[in-house]
Amino acid sequence: MKNLFLTTVALVATLAVCGAENPPALVPVPQHLTFEPGRTVDLAAARICIPGQEKELIAAATLFSRDLARESDLSLKVDRKAGGDIRLMLDTSLGEEAYRLSVRPEGVVVEGGSPAGVFYGLQSLRQLVAQYGTTLPEVQVEDAPSFGYRGAMLDCCRHFFTVEEVKTFLDILALHKINRFHWHLTEDQGWRIEIKRYPELTKIGSRRAETVLGNNSVAYDGIPYDGYYTQDDVREVVAYAAERFIEVIPEIEMPGHASAALATYPWLGCAGEGYKVQTCWGVFPEVFCAGKESTFEFLQNVLSEVIELFPSKYIHVGGDECPKESWEKCPACQQRIRDEHLKNEHELQSYFILRMEKWLNEHGRSLIGWDEILEGGISQSATIMSWRGAKGGIAAARAGNKVIMTPNTHCYLDYYQTKDPRRLEPWGIGGYVSVGKAYSLDPYDQLTEAERPYILGVQGNIWTEYIAGFAHLQHMVLPRLAALAEVGWSCERRDAEDFRRRMEVFRKLYERQGWRYAPYFFDGTDLPKE
């Protein structure tokens, strides 16, 4: 992979010749960076100006100023006048998320192809301030992302996180130039979003009687557990994300992982009775009945409220881990199979997903599902999120479907980070994904040049069966999220050795924000034993 990073390798070599001891350390690594050692720019009394008065640029500048105030001694005023030491500008000749950053004695200029590009330029400037303080070297950066989709998923169902904690998670994503927040909102262990037409979903479905202790043992804590987001909470989170140029993609699970909904409204299931909000982890046989029209009416009514809350292009419908036992026994599901001339229950799931996709398309949205939705057939308009390794994503791309690569082998941040977790780490679900493993993800593995355009991007996932608190969550996410962020932003410019050098600087921002991060990558304990 080092041959993909010749620009930065040459830069580091040049700096060594020039005697520079502190080269810029940006994460993700930019496309082009030039650096003038020995020449500095003082920002101590700088002002930020937005000559064009663009509302989104003013908001981005205000956020930048607030972040700097928390992270450093630098307090910058935002001025709408034409003059200023730090100028924010739009240049439509650049790509939408591309930016240019120029730090010179005559001033700092951040130009973006859109307000999002300017925002990303400010994140790079923020890193320079964290590295150098108020006296910056002369730097020129030209940058743009490799992928348009750079995501992170947070499961708030197994364990619930407050609105303020979700906002902090969004702050973490923004620093890493991640632009999609996949919000997992319904599960067997809890329904977490208010649906006004079905108020019992949060009165009953958001509450479980107790929670299993430890790694899915036979012991339980005996403590009721609940929590959900009101629609006003959702609007607050969506607006907060939008200010940071992050699109929020909701996930409403179907047809499996439906226990919380079935416990609330038993008529949604094949048996019609005997359901509960699950108190342990795993895959459960209770799923939405695919034979009843009332099931589709319910889900369409739910999604009607969801799409009013989330302006995202995509709606995630899950589609994973759907056992077929109840469908095999259900007269209504078997009648559906006969009426629709389906071969089996796998094609019944395909019918289910295709029907929901058609409804979403009619309402101006696009469907994302986990790679199981490929089983039994799927339309080419559906986007596949490949989690069971890369195999599903490769097959989908070859079939002409759009793909987001999120293989558990590289992208599951609830996995352990070391080979000796019992000695070193808090609870995880199992497995092993070190920072280096995450960094080594090749989203194009086994794909031809013609197939590569079907890969939209990459995503890190954080499932929370064993992550009950926000400090633990941060520990699992950081610094592995930085590795995946660099895969998404700088896919063909990576170099593992240089990434380690830059992360030694970048983690200062974690510390200044008070974010907890795992130390293993930095002290070497994430490496497998010989």
Structural write-up:
The model is unreliable at 1-20 (pLDDT under 50). Helix content is 37%, strand content 18%. The protein has 530 residues and is an alpha/beta fold. It has two domains: 24-143, Chitobiase, domain 2; 149-323 and 350-523, TIM Barrel. A hairpin with a 2-residue loop joins strand 10 (186-187) and strand 11 (190-191). An eight-stranded parallel β-barrel has the order 8-9-12-13-14-15-16-19, surrounded by six helices. It has a seven-stranded mixed beta sheet with strand order 1-7-5-6-4-2-3, with helices on one face. The chain has a two-stranded antiparallel sheet with strand order 10-11. Helix 4 (163-175) packs parallel to helix 6.
Overall helicity:
25-40%
Beta-strand content bin: 15-25%
Structural class: alpha/beta
Cα distance spanning the termini: 23 Å
How are strands sequenced across the largest beta sheet? 8-9-12-13-14-15-16-19
Radius of gyration: 24 Å
Count of individual beta strands? 19
CATH architectural type of the largest domain: Alpha-Beta Barrel
CATH topology of the largest domain: TIM Barrel
CATH class of the largest domain: Alpha Beta
The largest β sheet comes out as: 8 strands, parallel, barrel
Q: CATH-wise, what's the superfamily of the largest domain?
A: Glycosidases
How many discrete domains?
2
**Separate helix tally:** 19
Low-confidence stretches: 1-20
